[in-house]
Amino acid sequence: MGIKEVMKRIFSPGEDTKEDTAEVSNLEPVRIYIKQQLREKGLKNNQIEIDFSNVCTKEEVVKVAEELGFNLERGEKEGVWWLFR
Could you tell me which residues are beta bridge partners of residue 48? Predict the structure, then answer.
């Protein structure tokens, strides 16, 4: 990427690149899954245990949970995370 492209990205907020749009669309199912789990299980002591195995990657869990205002801690089983506030 040349300097012109870099400057354009810095000073042109609001213009999404194809990569940005793809990332947002890839994260939407994770957001929906977390919200669905919250509705089904609810928060107990301001925390919830969610099994993300076969749902998404670790990076996607971390990014979406933080966007939704949660802190994270790995659970005992593979793919399980505790989300808490």
Answer: 83
Residue reference for tokens 């994260």 = 27
Residues belonging to the chain: 85
User: What is the pTM assigned to this prediction?
Assistant: 0.71
Q: What is the CATH number of domain 18-84?
A: 3.30.1370
**Could you tell me the two tokens for 63?**
């990014």
Q: Where are the domains of the chain?
A: 18-84
pLDDT digits (tens, 9 = 90+) for 26-73: 899 999 999 999 999 999 999 999 999 999 999 999 999 999 999 999
Q: Bridge partners of 49?
A: 82
37: nearest Cα among 23, 25, 26, 47: 47
